[in-house]
Amino acid sequence: MHVHIINSANRAQYLDEVEQMHRHRHRIFAEVMGWKALESPDRLDIDEFDTPNATYLVAIDNSVVRGSLRLIPSWRPHMLKTLFRDYVEGDPPSGPGIWEWTRHAPGDPSFSREINHQVRFLLNIAVYEFAASRGIEAFIGIADCQIVPRMIDLGWKVDPIGLPVNYGEGVGYAFRMHVDHANNDRLRARLGRENTVLVEMPRGLVAEEGLMARRAIELAMNLPARKIGRAEEVLRELATVDE
Q: What is the CA radius of gyration of the chain?
């Protein structure tokens, strides 16, 4: 299982997975967690912040979406800035190194314990890898008080930037979390995962070609270095057009 970066540049390669993601989000937030405001007749969780500004980190297991989260740069419209200013004392933190983290949906009660364990850790490791690739220094968002202990267990230092607010289905507060890359090593050790978990496909591939390329990259990421030469030979042979 790997976590894929899906954004406006490569979204066309992931049309099926994007729909799965929105259905999974509805399943988790509306059906499992009971957030009435997110109930939708089409059972898709899509809001006004699911725009080209959003980047999704999606855990994909053989074309099956197992979990996802949404990241939006703080200089673009996002939830804390636009909808929930009353959660923050003063202005929401903003700047080139700050992104908002929302719609965190790791796993599903219907999945096995092992899959849910993997997804939980993989998404958090992927966030660190994404932060390193974009120069992100901190994340902001709103956390339900019940899940804050899980965030702390995963090594995040959750600093409140506002008072707790009762939002109907629970109590949450706005937070800012500094990116401590040393914690990524600790998460990898706990999961037993040494290799990179994040996949970012380039723009330009169509859906069918993108699926083939994604699978090839995922397999290559798991190869030991000593077998890369042999893998390249096999791929060149497969790519040869029969005359």
A: 19
Backbone angles phi, psi at 117, to 5 degrees: -60, -45
Give the C-alpha separation, 71 to 103, whole Å: 9
Residue 216 CB coordination number (10 Å): 13
230: burial class by Cβ within 10 Å (0-12, 13-18, 19+)? Answer: exposed
DSSP 8-state secondary structure symbol assigned to residue 222? T
Could you tell me if 71 and 99 are in contact, meaning their C-beta atoms sit under 8 angstroms apart?
Answer: yes
Nearest by Cα to 199 from 69, 9, 60, 103: 60
- CB 233: neighbour CB atoms within 10 A? 10
CA 29 to CA 69: how far, in whole Å? 12
Tokens of 95: 């700047």
Phi, psi of 35, deg, nearest 5:
-80, 100
**Cα gap 205→15, rounded to integer Å:** 13
Tell me how far apart the alpha carbons of residues 70 and 99 are, in angstroms, rounded to a whole number.
10
Reduced to 3 states (helix: H, G, I; strand: E, B; else coil), residue 121 is helix
d(CA 7, CA 207): 14
Alpha-carbon distance 209 to 233, whole Å? Answer: 20
Bridge partners for 192 per DSSP:
none
Residue-wise pLDDT for 105-161, tens only, equals: 999 999 999 999 999 999 999 999 999 999 999 999 999 988 899 999 999 999 999
pLDDT at 99: 98
Here the tokens at position 231 are 């893998």
